[in-house]
Write the structure tokens for this entry.
Amino acid sequence: MGYNTKNYTEQGGEKTVIAGKLDITGDGKLTFSGDPLSKALYQSDSEAVDITLGIPIETGIFSGKAPEEYLVITPMNDLFDLYADNLPQAETQEARVSLFTKYNYMARKNEIVNLLLGADFTISDRRYLGFEEDTGFHHFAIDVAKEYLRNQ
């Protein structure tokens, strides 16, 4: 009779696998290169939205061999628009979501727009940037913005 565990350290101690739950209790600490790890200061809980619809996605530029359809997010601006007592109270982040597809882009564009609007993003621009003859991709861009309150 064998025993399988979700959490284990491989022989030699080079790698520990946590497939279950890790509880750090009492005086226990989690460190990285000797520095304690904790939630980043001023970081609010994630409000991330999955806009991928199963489409591969990268930031800035797609690396590697491009599939028949993919998304690229290009950060554009981080703005402090709302101040109180000379301190920023909210931050607006803007980015471009670019859809590259070898198929009809209309249905995918509408799916992405609906997901973004449902997640309270502001859409400031939507435009077809053209068909790239050298790659065979249609390129459609959606510019978005979202405001986040800053935790002081």
In short: The first helix runs from residue 106 to 118. Residues 45-149 form a domain with the STM4215-like fold (CATH 3.30.2000.30). DSSP finds one helix and nine strands in the chain.
